[in-house]
Amino acid sequence: MCVKRMLLLVAGIALVGVLAACGDEQRQIAVLASPTTEVVQSAAPATPVAQGTAMVEIAAAKVSEVQAVPTSTPLPATSPTVAPTPAATPVATPEMKPTPAKAAAINKLVMIDPGHQRHGNNEPEQVGPDTREMKAKVSSGTVGVRTKKAEYVLNLEVSALLKAELVRRGINVEMTRETHDVDISNKQRADMANEAGAALVVRIHADGDASASTKGFSVLYPSAGQPAMKPIAAESKQAAGYLLAGLQQATGSKGRGLSARDDLSGFNWSKVPVALVELGFMTNPEEDELMSDKAYQQKLATGIADGIEQFVNGK
Fold first, then answer.
1. Model pTM greater than 0.85?
2. Which spans in the chain are helix H?
3. In 3-state terms, what secondary structure has residue 283?
4. Is 50 a member of any domain?
5. CA Rg, the chain, in Å?
6. Per-residue b/e over 186-195, b at no fewer than 16 CB within 10 Å?
7. 34 assigned to some structural domain
8. Which of the chain's termini has less CB crowding within 10 Å, N or C?
């Protein structure tokens, strides 16, 4: 009987130890499974068996919580989907081409002839190859009735603005004179353009008339009546039309229109298209004053340049 009691006592002690060990092991599992350690306090001391059972339940609950936590937080249903970057489409680099004005500047020359000079030359000169008519090589031109400005001065002022405007547009340009103190006849001016191979000659002049009321710009071109003019008559008239249109648009005035001439040495000796712009009448007081206004001079230069550009780009 004593032996049986002893065996039962030993078995009970062993069972308590096993349960206690199990409780310690479960507590370790619970600590590892939770980021924070929960401390559970009982109102009354629990038996070793109860403690072991409770710890097993706590550990099981913690394991369940760990399993329930998702490994990553899903994106909201409304989050935009990032589209893949589309593959680059190869595009051929466009070939850079010069503007029409630039192209004209490469192969074509515009010659500006500011009419007259400080001192005229009255020596006779043949008017053209198809006539025996003679006239003075070059005159000094007219004089402003109000400004008292000499025509050769006005012509060079506007011609200088015209040259600057053409250069700004990329058009190749030369002038027959850039000072007043020269001695170049009208035939020689035509020869200069012929030798340079100009695409167009634009002669700049101002007009005069016995009537003080006469006013307005005009554009002259060589008549086809002169046999030597036939090869360039059509193109010269076309250029004159462009010049007139440019002046009309730039100034807002209709002007006096176009006029064909066969008595001008600068036309008759020319072998390249040529036109002459009469800026206005220096014998008209208001127009004389207007033509000396810098803003109006720029309008004239811009309009003439527009006409030149239209003609040269069309050749």
1. no
2. 2-33, 48-68, 100-107, 151-168, 186-196, 230-251, 265-268, 285-291, 294-314
3. coil
4. no
5. 52
6. bbbbbbbbee
7. no
8. N
| Cβ contacts of 113 within 8 Å, gap of 6 or more | 159, 175, 176, 177, 189, 193, 201, 202, 203, 204, 266
Q: In angstroms, what CA-CA distances link 31 with 19, 34, 46, 58, 101?
A: 18, 6, 20, 10, 87
Q: Is residue 35 part of a domain?
A: no
Grouping H, G, I as helix, E, B as strand and the rest as coil, residue 258 is strand
CATH code assigned at 141: 3.40.630.40
- Whole-angstrom CA distances from 286 to 147, 252, 271 are 10, 16, 37
Residue 17, number of CB atoms within 10 A of its CB: 11
62 touches 33 (CB < 8 A): yes
Euclidean distance between the first and the last CA atom of the chain, given in angstroms as a whole number: 139
246 touches 172 (CB < 8 A) = no
pLDDT of residue 208 exceeding 60, the answer is: yes
Tell me: pLDDT of 9 over 50. Answer: no
More confident residue, 37 or 116: 116
